[in-house]
Design a protein that fits this description.
Aminopeptidase, alpha+beta, 10 helices, 8-stranded mixed beta sheet
Length: 416
């Protein structure tokens, strides 16, 4: 254990200068611990996954995640007003970097889903086993390794399990964490999400709406000639399909759900569609949003013009399903170089990608942020057949998260 009278604080000034971090005497025991206790990490992953955590129903999993952090020596572990689980490991230097290491508690599956995890050879199969039970297990493993190795960091590490990362949650957990719980004091935000060995260094933003077109409705024969919401919706979908979007920055749209009407011989009173728009650029996303709105309005006007002798009018109602900000940071950013350097120390080079994760929100606010995979390999995220395979060296996932965290907090090292 480090004695305060013998501490000198060593800030790792850049990931390029700190590539030997894995060889430091204070760090090697923690890395060895993660490898030796890999079965424990997998057990955490499986057992947490068997606790249902549907959108807005994460409380049971959150309570268990908190209990496990307490068992690792974090009596200050707590659940905030939004439902996030938070445990702080104070650093040795006042004013040093405060680093959040996070994973999300929620899944996309409703409460009725069978969340049993079964082993199929070397694979673990179960809804959410990779997204994001793997991330939760990695966060616990890093917290445990730091405690076991008695690692003293210069900055504070905040271990977090967030709620609301998946679609319906609209990042409500991380928004609360950044805006209220942390009072703006987050210097780096790291999310662990899913399996693999890549870095999400750019945030894909999204705008999602339910668009409902309404009219008076009527009988298909007797009232023929009045504007029809279903026909207008069809025109709107065709108009959206024709909207030009750039390939760089990558920008996409999709109409994922359509519904409306009451019977085959009725002119509908309402028809609705769910629209998803995404982009790596906030400006491109805002432009697409405007064009989609114009396409809907043009469709309504076209339906009115189709029946010039009728005074009935259609209206469009836009209900926001969710909005996630887009953001980007250069590959030369310290946090990105730190992630790449930490991976290189473990023998792999991560791909730099763009996606939509908890890191979107803090990155948009200018907080250096990224999301890393949790090691191993997997597939089928958001599907009942989701699987995770630890492969030959799944323990490198937690090791990567540990090295990255230490690169950002700095180490407090003992003077010989």
């Amino acid at each position: 254990m480090l004695r305060p009278a013998l501490l000198t604080l060593l800030l790792l000034p850049s990931p390029l200068l700190g590539q030997d971090l894995a060889q430091r005497p204070a760090v090697t025991p923690a890395l060895a611990h993660l490898r030796a206790t890999n079965d424990w990490t997998l057990a955490q992953q499986s057992s947490l996954c068997e606790i249902p955590a549907p959108p807005f129903g994460e409380a049971a999993r959150a309570a268990e995640f908190r209990r496990r952090l307490e068992g690792l020596g974090f009596p200050n572990a707590r659940i905030d007003a939004e439902g996030n689980v938070i445990a702080e490991r104070p650093g040795a230097a006042r004013g040093a970097a405060r680093v959040v290491l996070s994973a999300h508690l929620d899944t996309v599956f409703p409460d009725s889903t069978d969340v049993s995890v079964r082993r199929d050879g070397t694979r673990l199969r179960g809804p959410g086993i990779g997204d994001d039970c793997r991330g939760l297990a990695v966060v616990l493993a890093v917290a445990r390794a730091m405690q076991q190795a008695q690692l003293q960091t210069q900055g504070t590490v905040v271990f977090v399990g967030t709620v609301g990362e998946e679609g319906p949650g609209n990042l409500r957990g991380v928004r609360h964490l950044i805006d209220r719980q942390s009072a703006g004091k987050v210097d780096y935000f790291i999310s662990v999400d899913g399996a693999g060995h890549s870095v999400v260094s750019r945030a894909v933003g999204s705008h999602r709406y339910r668009v409902t077109i309404r009219g008076p409705g009527g009988h298909s024969f007797g009232d023929f000639g009045i504007p029809n919401p279903v026909h207008a919706l069809g025109r709107a979908i065709a108009g959206i399909a024709a909207v030009p979007v750039p390939t760089s920055p990558r920008t996409t749209f999709n109409v994922g759900v359509i519904e409306g009407g009451t019977s085959v011989n009725s002119i509908a009173m309402a028809a609705a569609m769910d629209v998803d728009m995404r982009s790596e650029s906030q400006a491109a996303l805002d432009t697409l949003d405007s064009r989609v709105r114009r396409a809907v309005q043009a469709a309504i006007e076209a339906e009115h013009q189709r029946w010039p002798g009728n005074s009935a009018r259609l209206t469009a109602e836009w209900k926001e399903i969710g909005k996630r900000p887009a953001a980007a940071q250069p590959d030369t950013a310290f946090v990105v170089r730190s992630a790449v350097a930490a991976a290189r120390q473990l023998g792999f080079v991560p791909a730099l990608t763009a996606s939509s994760t908890d890191a979107n929100y803090p990155m948009r606010l200018g907080i250096p942020s990224l999301t890393i995979d949790g090691g191993g390999q997997g597939d089928g995220a958001h599907a009942l057949g989701e699987w995770y395979d630890d492969g030959p060296a799944g323990w490198k996932g937690p090791q990567w998260a540990l090295l990255l965290t230490l690169s950002l907090t700095g180490l407090a090292v003992e003077v010989p």
